[in-house]
Amino acid sequence: MNARPSGPPTREHLLNTRRRIESVSHGKKLLERKREALVRAMDEERRLFRETEKTFLSAAKTITFFYSIVRLFEGDGAVRFLSAGSGSLNIKVEKKSVMGCSYSHFSASPEDRRRLSWKLPFDPAVTTLSVEDLLKSLGDNEECIWQYINLKTKIGAIERELSKTTLKINTLEHVVLPSLERDVRRIEDLLSERERQEKFVAKRVARRRRSKQKI
Asked: Which domain CATH number covers 31?
């Protein structure tokens, strides 16, 4: 944690240890400011997430209902027909950060999103109302799904960064600073004892000199 000086402590060792305490205390204050900023960001993102989650869960129920209807009355063939010709969607992962917290932001290019199956024009003559409702619900709720995914990812990253920051603050407050303060007290006690011994020796030498002068 903190290396103790080899040999007898000196005033320089005491000053260096005090400077380390000031440096650690300053670092702790910066981490506390970072923690406060992360907490504010967390509160705001959670508020947005709660609003988005309600819309997402409602959309998921609707999509699941229409999907079940299509599977029930149209069969697997209708589902395979909807996905015919649609390859895998290329997802762009962009790294962003807030207060030193890095997180991923997922998106797809407009060109890739336009070729999704529910964005393709289907002939009403060969599709049923259930299929049309499924396609419409998928298209209407696409932005909500992306927002839900990205908010959930961002909140998870902030939570991990907040946990690490809190751990660092607790380590500095309860481990590093107490250890340095104990070192300061130890060095001060040793220096005080050394000064007392030096004064005692100096007095004895002075008495001996005065005794010799009298003789």
From this structure: 1.10.287.3240
Domain that holds residue 92: 12-214
Q: What is the DSSP string of the chain?
A: --PPPSSS--HHHHHHHHHHHHHHHHHHHHHHHHHHHHHHHHHHHHHHHHHHHHHHHHHHHHHHHHHHHHHHHT-HHHHHHHHTT--PPPPEEEEEEETTEEEEEEE--HHHHHTSGGGS---TTTS-HHHHHHHHHHHHTHHHHHHHHHHHHHHHHHHHHHHHHHHHHHHIIIIIHHHHHHHHHHHHHHHHHHHHHHHHHHHHHHHHHHHHHH-
Structure tokens at 104: 């991923």
**Below-50 pLDDT ranges, the chain:** 1-2
> What was the pLDDT predicted at 1?
46
Q: Is residue 122 part of a domain?
A: yes
